Amino acid sequence: MHTEALAFHSHDHAGCSAEALAGAEALAAAKGLRLTPVRRRVLEILLEAHRAMGAYDVLQRLAAEGFGNQPPVVYRALEFLVDQGLAHRIQRLNAFTACMDPGHDHAPAFLICRDCSAVAEAPAASVREALEMAAAAVGFTVERSTVEALGLCPACAGAA
Amino acid sequence: MHTEALAFHSHDHAGCSAEALAGAEALAAAKGLRLTPVRRRVLEILLEAHRAMGAYDVLQRLAAEGFGNQPPVVYRALEFLVDQGLAHRIQRLNAFTACMDPGHDHAPAFLICRDCSAVAEAPAASVREALEMAAAAVGFTVERSTVEALGLCPACAGAA
DNA sequence: GATGTGAACGTTATGATATAACATGTCAAG
DNA sequence: CTTGACATGTTATATCATAACGTTCACATC
């Protein structure tokens, strides 16, 4: 279960966080990256929250634990995590989420529930492919893409 | 020529702006919307620029012409235009562009050149369809979607 | 073990983007 | 000519993000 929309279903949360963290450590070791205390703690905070968090929300948590409490501290850590594919930025929310599946595929689509604000990462290979085709048709070369959908998650759709 | 990536090719710019503006007026008339001086002027500014502009850039133009010079003035006009499909927000740039084809299709993909910053609107029916399928697979209902690609436009790819 | 080097971190300050709240103006319907 | 709805203008502030600079620390080299 690594490409499904975990966030929309109950699951072994502690387990999936631990797994993602282990994946991050493996990736860091493999690539010779430094998963320093700040970076690691930011990733843990995102994993624990299991939803999109604003940079300043993360910063508050960091500061409460004795790390620096100025914006650059958290923005640098987030930049590192995003660059390495360990976290994602949700443009629509100016927020960040931990990547649930570091190291694989990547360039997922994000499904954002407008009701409960849950954010799920969905496999988007077909979406990217369609986008690349559309871009190629006008001579454009895609390097990075952002695909985000706003709507209703299963639970909130059911409640309505 | 209403679904192609105009921004990447030379074309009758004054003509396409006039056309889009006429389309906006027709749409406003048809829907009973008020295309007031501020709103109309914001749309014209976006059409003339023919690229993504930040809200404060637009505001500066407005202020120079005697309109209010406080952020809410331009943000309200932009919100109106975006809601009515006369302009689009480019999340990745925190910027706005005029819609080149008001009234049709809609929910285009945006192709953003990282070199020259040109932004083109590309037809994205197939992309949206793929996204809706992927979302449906996890029980999510898409209401609005954001599809943006960062890369190289034909001209800049050629120059490199 | 001293020392140079570079990356990460901390801090100050500021910049850029966006909205809440309220006052004023406009205009058509009653 | 009042009322009500909506647009605009203004003040103030919230929110998101980065430039610039100094300090610390791990580590390689001498």
Description:
Two copies of one chain form a homodimer. Chain A has 160 residues and is an alpha+beta fold. In chain A, helix 1 (13-31) runs antiparallel to helix 2, helix 2 packs across helix 4 and helix 3 (55-64) crosses helix 4. Chain A has a three-stranded mixed sheet. A two-stranded antiparallel ribbon of chain A has the order 1-2. The mean pLDDT of chain A is 92. The first copy, chain A, has helices spanning 13-31, 37-49, 55-64, 71-83, 125-136, 154-159, and strands spanning 87-90, 95-98, 109-113, 119-122, 141-152. Helix content of chain A is 46%, strand content 18%. Chain A binds chain B through residues 4-5, 8, 91-92, 109, 111, 113-114, 120, 122-124, 126-127, 129-131, 133-135, 137-154, 157, and chain B through 4-5, 8, 91-92, 109, 111, 113-114, 120, 122-124, 126-127, 129-131, 133-135, 137-154, 157. Strand 5 (141-152) of chain A pairs antiparallel with strand 5 of chain B, so a sheet runs across the interface.
